[in-house]
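FAQ: What does the model actually see?

It sees only this:
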Amino acid sequence: TEAMEAYYTADSADDEAFMGALSDAALRVHMDLLERAAQDEGSPMATTLSLLISVWPRAYLLQVGDSRYYILGNGELSQVSRDQTVAQDLVDSGVLEPAQAARGRWADTLSSSIGGSQSMPVVTRIEHDWDYVHLFCSDGLTKHVSDDRIRDRLSTMTSSKQVCEDLLQDALDDGGTDNITLIVAR
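And it is asked to produce this:
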């Protein structure tokens, strides 16, 4: 609801203002969740957020946490979002190698979330292309299915439903140790 309010009230012709409105919307939800948790005797409530709002010919990704957003275009798979985890922060600062981070204890520790101790929304502007395939997914998929396998599945898909079922099965076949959420769209 907050993002839709930003969509209808912010000037989408002014990128900076529009992106700021989306970020502010996420922070309002974050604050609301913190207040609700305090009213419920401090029971923790936190979540990730991946939201794509299209204002042709652009789209805006609003991202908080470690759920991912990928684009497949011209046969190349690109991770547009950045994992907001302690492990990724350590990789970015040069303390850990990516392979170490993926298997370490910090891989599942969020450094930013909606309702957590810290929320740092990131808004990314994306130029649309009719040929893009879009994938939103939780880390339950990416813990078990490589980017190469995801690219191969998306490149040969016959429908969004079919590729979601195939990717889900790939993750389950590899152990499926976390919730597996995914959305694929063209």
